[in-house]
Amino acid sequence: MNMHSAHAAFGVDSLKTILGIPVLAIRWDDAIALLTRLIAERRFTKISFLNAHNANIASVDPVFAEALDDFLILPDGVGVDMAAKLLYGAPFPDNLNGTDFVPAFLQASTRPLTVGLLGATRVNAEAASTRLAALAVQHRFVVIHDGYFPPADEPAIIDRIARLHPDVLLVAMGVPRQELWIARHIDARHCTLPIAVGALLDFLSGTVPRAPLWMRRLRLEWLFRLWIEPGRLWRRYVVGNPVFLLRVVRQKLFGKPEPAEATPGAGH
């Protein structure tokens, strides 16, 4: 299933297009039920999340934007909520950020699954696997490889994924590398649900702290991340967020995203 088949399955009101990218407008529980059904039916589906940062990257990287066209895209964060409210008069029904949604989906899935982990450092991936195994004891978690491998190692890694054939493959390589890697190398022969999860394994490992719950409830987790890693993230948030909102305003006024130009923080 991609966004086009999702459109047919859920109806015209189920998609909100943000800067040219169709995003599924769906409640939290319905999204969990959808992913559970896709696995039960063995319907190969690539899954990613749209936030202000990767929407900016897609605006200037046509290869990334084209790859996303074949993913089922879920809404992540306050930026795309603001965009949806501006463009469609209402925010997304729920914030399905992968850091919270993916573990919740795995906890809610009662049928035992095999879940492959690919990405982050080996230490963080192993720690994330241990954490997930404690959160969702019904599943089998397998660390396939860290995210730091040369192209020469790819065939062996892809072969290992195919032999394992996990129900879920969590790919944590950062945007846009993780989505492009899935698009180029992973199909129904390898797994059922490849999910691009960004920094999820780093968060689960405890290496990168999450914002306090009150900040998350106020939709200020981005501010906490900026405070923790200002050198890496200031361009993404301080420059990138206003650029994203300007692009959304342009879409509102002119019915199309602005032409491609250099985006601050792209690729980090």
TrEMBL record:
Species of origin: Mesorhizobium metallidurans STM 2683
Protein name listed in UniProt: Glycosyl transferase, WecB/TagA/CpsF family
One Pfam family cited in the UniProt record for this chain: Glyco_tran_WecG
GO MF annotation, one: hexosyltransferase activity
Superkingdom of this protein's organism: Bacteria
Keyword entries, A-Z: Glycosyltransferase, Transferase
